[in-house]
Description:
By secondary structure, this protein is mainly alpha-helical. It contains 45 helices and 14 strands. It comes from Streptomyces sporangiiformans.
Amino acid sequence: MDGVPRVPDPRVPDPGEPEQWGSERSAPLRFSVLGPVRAWRGAESLPTGSPQQRALLAALLLREGRTATASELIDALWGDEPPSQALAAVRTYASRLRKVLGSGVLVSESGGYAIRSLEDGALDLALAQELAADAEKARNAGDLCHARALINKVLSLWDGEVLASVPGPYADTQRTRLDEWRLQLVESRLDMDLEQGCHAEAISELTALTAAHPLRERLRELLMLALYRSGRQAEALAVYADTRRLLADELGVDPRPGLTELQQRILQADPGLAEPSAPVAEPAAAPVKPAQLPATVPDFTGRASFVAELSEVLSATSMAGGRVMAVSALAGIGGVGKTTLAVHVAHQARGSFPDGQLYVDLQGAGARAAEPETVLGSFLRALGTADSAIPDSLEERAALYRSTLDGLQVLVLLDNARDAAQVRPLLPGTEGCAALVTSRVRMVDLEGAQLVDLDVMSPEEALQLFTKIVGKERVASERKAALDVVAACGFLPLAIRIAASRLASRRTWTVSVLAAKLADERRRLDELQAGDLAVKATFELGYGQLEPAQARAFRLLGLADGPDISLAAAAAVLDLPPDDTEDLLESLVDTSLLESAAPGRYRYHDLVRLYARACAERDEQPPGERDAAMSRLLDFYLATAARVYAMERPGDRLVDHLEPTEHAGLRFTEGAAALDWLYTEAAPLLACVRQSTGTDRLRRAVDLLWASKDLTESGANSYQYETTARAMCDATRAAGDVRAEGRARTVLTDVLLVSGRIEQAEEQARSAMELAGSAQDATAISWVANNRGLICLHQGRYADGKVFFDQAIEGLRAAGNRPFEATSLCNLSRAHLGMGNVTKAVEIARRGVAAHAEFGRTVRLANSHYAVGVALTRAGRHAEALSHFSDALCILSDHRQRLWEGTTHFRIAEVHLAARRPAQAAQHTEQALALGCIGGDRMRGSVLTLLGRALSELGQVDRARACWREALNLYEENGAPEADEVRALLTPAAAA
């Protein structure tokens, strides 16, 4: 059954390990009735004879050891019209079965027969009943995860039709009974799915089930609830209308009260429907428990009242009956110790949040604060959500985040927030969770938050912190000088820590020496209290004690934008071997001038980064070394991204026409590692592109964006990628670099095509073609020609599209780019298809598949299978089309191309609808809606239109109309011509 994970099949024993069926040595008997009636002794399949003999065996097995009289068996096999020799036939069947099964199994008693002496679990039905009973106990105990897993095991025992090909009235009755039981189990499992917040995932299966069992009201009720919780209220109400009409037409009755009550609650937007009634977190394959808190400082000092206040709030939150989701927001100037306090309190409260702790630096004080959607993506991954399941929009990610946390006790530490708007989507919002927020600003507009204003330390606390780091003996003899030091630091914890650490590492210094250094005008109290200048003066203390190599690393690494930097990228910036680089970075971590974000990744506090850049401008010699460092970083990203591109698209010649690099970049042995690198480095990589607007780096930056195009095609980083592409278009235009601008606009065209903004894509493509022609950039010309052909396909201009594809193919053939030539060939087949040349379209697309197959299971091979499937669909060759679409799906899933997966599901749905299989069509369109598609809102409109057609054929007219109305809104917003088609679908129904 779709959507039910398989468990190891108990009918096929593993000789290598014991199981409930018994071991090979004892060779126990096993039987199955939840499918064909079969018997085994150990691994050996036993003959069960003719259909009537299997019917006798089934009747005895289903009696569960009780005796069946001869007359009962005759009734079971033949009913009211037994043959004249029925009794003799029963005896013959029993004798044959006894020989097969062995002595002591099929016994005769009181003129009847029974099957005895079977081991526990020997019959699949008995095992299913036992597991179902355990599932019911687990559910009653509130353990929905375990209950759902047990029901999935039960459902996995079914192997096709129950009692398949077994004749007789008894078998018919039992088949109906067991089919009904299975459907009840499915309903129970789906009910638990909704209780666990998996409503979006359940819609596809429920759509198929309601089509197969249109009069089953419980399934309709679950579908209404799933649609409503997925934000599809109109469809949910339409399901009720369809059900009411169907029941009236077929049975002459009204819906049962539960269904009617649900409709009223939906109409009233009952808050109780918005969330599961008894949510329990769905377990991943391995338990996921994030523990992201940075290390607490061992010498944490003071802040006792704040620690007590915050700890009390967190403790109360985790207790039963505690308040709904506590939020504490700490505010204060940079360096005042907000993060240190929050991390310390969070570590103390870890026991109250057994499901984990999340942490993020929101970079609110920097020029580019972290985007909430990016943070939500990282949080969802930390909570065990697969990349392919993470939606695109901020709203959808926030909803999935809250659903994932529902029922858990998780502490979220949001560090260095810019404002309340940045924080709101990141709050859990459910009982048992809590959030600690730090920011420079007081978040008076953060609803429900407990505001904590954190000021500088008191003199006593500041001296205690200084003493813990430096040592009691050294401070005791120079208490006055120590007070001068902490006063000069403005009682800022970060400044005190840096000053004290410097003194601790210089055993020949006295406290008075340090105090004298801080007496300099630049380090006076009024300066230390003057916002960022205070922090800068404090950082100067630590920076001045660095060895030359450390200082150089500190300065140069601060030049790079992005939330963090990997060890490999840092090695490129510094032009050093990775081992030497790691030693330097770890030494900087020891001085608190750099943070270790994760193994092999480093980051600056935003203010430290600003200070490092000021040092680079002041101290780096020669001055050109700053540009050289950023050039090396760009080279590293470009060379590595080019290798990722080449692994994903073997044989593609684009990488031969990118700007040359001096840095070798990373090498990968497998495609999965290459994709991991690309998606992990997305934010730093795109930041590097945006930074590289100087004329000497501009072309490489544009080529880096081009080589990393999977970031937008997969839907993983579409927004950030698009904003970067637009920035590069502006930068190249300002620089007057025709070649670079042509490529930047080519990249932007790709982005717009993926998102379905066809008119904007056409505008950019025209500019890109003109610029590429002026620059005589053959690579870009061929690429843009292919894009313009795709635009023509969207606009229905198939003859024009053929011209562009022919131009692209000619250029790609001349360049020896065989894989991309094959891709354009597949696109050309779509143009022929549009012109009615179906046979030629199939033939051309097949040539594309053959060409791509030479290069392995690549994304482009999947795209060519997709093209063949589309052409075969038009030719009416549905089975062949489905085979090609299935091949495409397998490859796309391996390469994490979620949007293309969704698009392929849409095409599969088209095939099923054309083949008069509306239930399967509806199920695949729901999967397309869940995954998203290439083409953005416009394509979503097409998916909804198709879903409406499938539902209409299933008799669910009101839900179909709800889909069409939503599709019409999307088409009208995008000015799409398909709007007329949907209006035509709605008009007859409206008139009726």
